[in-house]
Amino acid sequence: xxxxxxxxxxxxxxxxxxxxxxxxxxxxxxxxxxxxxxxxxxxxxxxxxxxxxxxxxxxxxxxxxxxxxxxxxxxxxxxxxxxxxxxxxxxxxxxxxxxxxxxxxxxxxxxxxxxxxxxxxxxxxxxxxxxxxxxxxxxxxxxxxxxxxxxxxxxxxxxxxxxxxxxxxxxxxxxxxxxxxxxxxxxxxxxxxxxxxxxxxxxxxxxxxxxxxxxxx
Length: 217
Description:
By secondary structure, this protein is mostly helical. Helices cover 77% and strands 0% of the residues. The chain has a single domain, classed as Up-down Bundle (Four Helix Bundle (Hemerythrin (Met), subunit A)). It has eight helices and no strands. Helix 4 packs antiparallel against helix 5 (99-122) and helix 4 (67-93) runs antiparallel to helix 7 (163-179). It starts with a helix and ends with a helix.
């Protein structure tokens, strides 16, 4: 069994040497503790990835069931966010990190982003705003991946619109819609916030990528 310190070192090495400090370090400690039973059971990382998508797919279904379902959906969003980190943790802790696994994880993350935003549409967000929020999030991840292909070895900026932020926005929006269904258009507010932080995060990332690749051939 890989201990916490070794897991954090391996995680840092796979993320351009980014040190897991503060909230990130605390989150990774939780992920390590949760992943440990899966490692002992020899669950394959790819299976954990697909299970995470299945969990995310439950969210719009719950959101359509009214206030009670929306509150439940908020907690399932948090569970889906945890599952998103578990597959990588299991892979790192079992030395099963592969290029195929990284590709599958990226594809499933993008699908899960779209599925979660469907839940905001279910609780009243305009379709165009949902599509725009998802598109900006996808563009954020595409820029980072493309920059890596062009030679940027570091992760780049840790922006305000990383995937955990997007998960939190959806979870809080659903929770508010379930607790106070008649007070605000929570779905629309959540989708608008998703788009807003996405644009800010994309700008942050582009500045860093421009600096990193500016001298490259």
